[in-house]
Amino acid sequence: LAGGIILGVALWLRHDSQTTNILYLQLGDKQAPNTFYVGIYILIAVGAVMMFVGFLGCYGAIQESQCLLGTFFTCLVILFACEVAAGIWGFVNKDQIAKDVKQFYDQAFQQALMAESETNNGKAVVKTFHETLDCCGPDNAIGTFTPLWRDDLCPKKDSLLKNIVEFSNCHKKIDELFSGKLYLIGIAAIVVAVIMIFEMILSMVLCCGIRNSSVY
């Protein structure tokens, strides 16, 4: 059940409309940075393997098989080690993920402002960011006062005042998006780690109980 829940959360994060809209973008020959998906794929793998290993442990307990329970324990140790490694990687890269996406947005924004040719897709990339995150420009002050601003880059509002008040800058929105998703990944990883610790303890207790009872 825990494996199924983790797998469900990971798949939901993987197919979330906001992240997929942004991370599938392509600026010319450059793909949007999708390092964020590494953590998601690890969660998907852990959830799927946990479901399989869970069946293995359950069957081993029913059959009172020390071999199956020992295999179950070994698999849990390997999964736990992989999860700790993934957690360390995520903690180290949590700021870099948002930073890479913001740099990608800034490059598209500059191209959208400077390029006159319709063959350049910077404008389309920027509009996707703006519509997905409901934001406007890298900075509100720049977006309001620079004469280079093109009106069609941001979603339309009824008035300039609403444009200023209702839209946040996109850097802030990108930070909020990925910090929220990484927070969910962190919670899921902690829950899985706690469950694994209890599973390892209980599997060894059961294995030792079967070994002792077989003597009599």
UniProtKB/TrEMBL annotation:
<dbReference type="InterPro" id="IPR018499">
    <property type="entry name" value="Tetraspanin/Peripherin"/>
</dbReference>
<keyword id="KW-1003">Cell membrane</keyword>
<keyword id="KW-0446">Lipid-binding</keyword>
<dbReference type="GO" id="GO:0042127">
    <property type="term" value="P:regulation of cell population proliferation"/>
</dbReference>
<feature type="transmembrane region" description="Helical">
    <location>
        <begin position="182"/>
        <end position="206"/>
    </location>
</feature>
<feature type="transmembrane region" description="Helical">
    <location>
        <begin position="68"/>
        <end position="92"/>
    </location>
</feature>
<keyword id="KW-0812">Transmembrane</keyword>
<dbReference type="GO" id="GO:0002250">
    <property type="term" value="P:adaptive immune response"/>
</dbReference>
<dbReference type="InterPro" id="IPR018503">
    <property type="entry name" value="Tetraspanin_CS"/>
</dbReference>
<dbReference type="InterPro" id="IPR008952">
    <property type="entry name" value="Tetraspanin_EC2_sf"/>
</dbReference>
<feature type="disulfide bond">
    <location>
        <begin position="136"/>
        <end position="154"/>
    </location>
</feature>
<dbReference type="Pfam" id="PF00335">
    <property type="entry name" value="Tetraspanin"/>
</dbReference>
<feature type="transmembrane region" description="Helical">
    <location>
        <begin position="36"/>
        <end position="62"/>
    </location>
</feature>
<feature type="disulfide bond">
    <location>
        <begin position="135"/>
        <end position="170"/>
    </location>
</feature>
<comment type="similarity">
    <text>Belongs to the tetraspanin (TM4SF) family.</text>
</comment>
<dbReference type="GO" id="GO:0016323">
    <property type="term" value="C:basolateral plasma membrane"/>
</dbReference>
<keyword id="KW-1015">Disulfide bond</keyword>
<keyword id="KW-1064">Adaptive immunity</keyword>
<keyword id="KW-1133">Transmembrane helix</keyword>
<dbReference type="InterPro" id="IPR000301">
    <property type="entry name" value="Tetraspanin_animals"/>
</dbReference>
<dbReference type="GO" id="GO:0008289">
    <property type="term" value="F:lipid binding"/>
</dbReference>
<keyword id="KW-0472">Membrane</keyword>
<protein>
    <recommendedName>
        <fullName>Tetraspanin</fullName>
    </recommendedName>
</protein>
<keyword id="KW-0391">Immunity</keyword>
